[in-house]
Amino acid sequence: MKEDKIIEPFFSHDIGSRQDSAIIRLLIKLGWEGYGLFWAIVEHMHKNPFAVEDENLIAYELRVEEEKIHQIMNDFGLFRVEEGFYISDRILRNLNYVEQKNEDKKQAANVRWLLSSFNKAYIEFFNEEPILSTQEIEALKKYNEKIPNLREKMRDIIYTLKSIKFDTNINFKPCANWLLKDNNLGRLLNSEFGPLKHKKTEKELREEQRRQREAEQKRNEPTEFDLKMQAISSREEALAFIFDHYKDKTLLFARNRAMVVPTLRPIMERYGIVDDDLRSLERKESSEGVC
């Protein structure tokens, strides 16, 4: 049966801690209960700061008298007080060690991720896996430290690398090893070989197609103008609609049908409306407006 991985943080417990003079004094006065309470407090302090004023909270958590917590923290030289908090040099060393280990692991993970991105992009555009020397990998790591978001740029870098051509040597094809020598990667990012190129990913293409479909769908959706025209059910309504439409424009009643907006022609034909009908409405409105 496969054992579960330990995911909880841990600290070292010295095998000879019982021989420590401070621990011996603790055992003499508080016995094994005091010894167990001491390690419970140490566990707590690896996760949380312990303020002097919080002795009662620790006592409640461990279900013991507050006086015992106070004794452990003050009577045996196991802890000291700084700015209102109990401090242990050993705990501080443990925490610093764990923090450094975590930072090392984080950096190692970032390097693996960077190399993975480099290899993936290289295989995509060169159809082969790059073979990098130790020096070239170190060069890539140094670039990663100096160039923000290098991993996110890696695909564009490799795509641009594939397209580089040299007029002085048309048969030379730059590769991964060339890229990681003589600051060529830095020169590429500085556009010395032309601007950085980008080939759309499958995800980007799908997103572009989705936006195009949405735009097409929006173009095909009926406008307010279309909906109003569809709602017309009589010749009188059609005349009023067309007249109001043109009255708000600068095209007032052109003398030939070619000037009529194409979307209005079907409704004019449906109800047999001609230019003279519109001119009659215009004259009628003009005469009604004269006092």
Protein model, in words:
There is one protein chain. With 291 residues, the protein is mainly α. The protein folds into 3 domains: 17-87; 98-189, no CATH class; 224-286, no CATH class. The protein is built from 13 helices and 2 strands. It has a two-stranded antiparallel sheet with strand order 1-2. The protein is elongated, with a radius of gyration of 40 Å.
Name the shape in a single word: elongated
- State the helical fraction: 55-70%
Mean pLDDT: 83
Tally of contiguous helical segments? 13
Helix/strand/pairing category: mainly alpha
Number of extended strands:
2
* Spatial gap, N to C terminus: 102 Å
Query: H/E series, N to C?
Result: HHHEEHHHHHHHHHH
Number of self-contained structural domains? 3
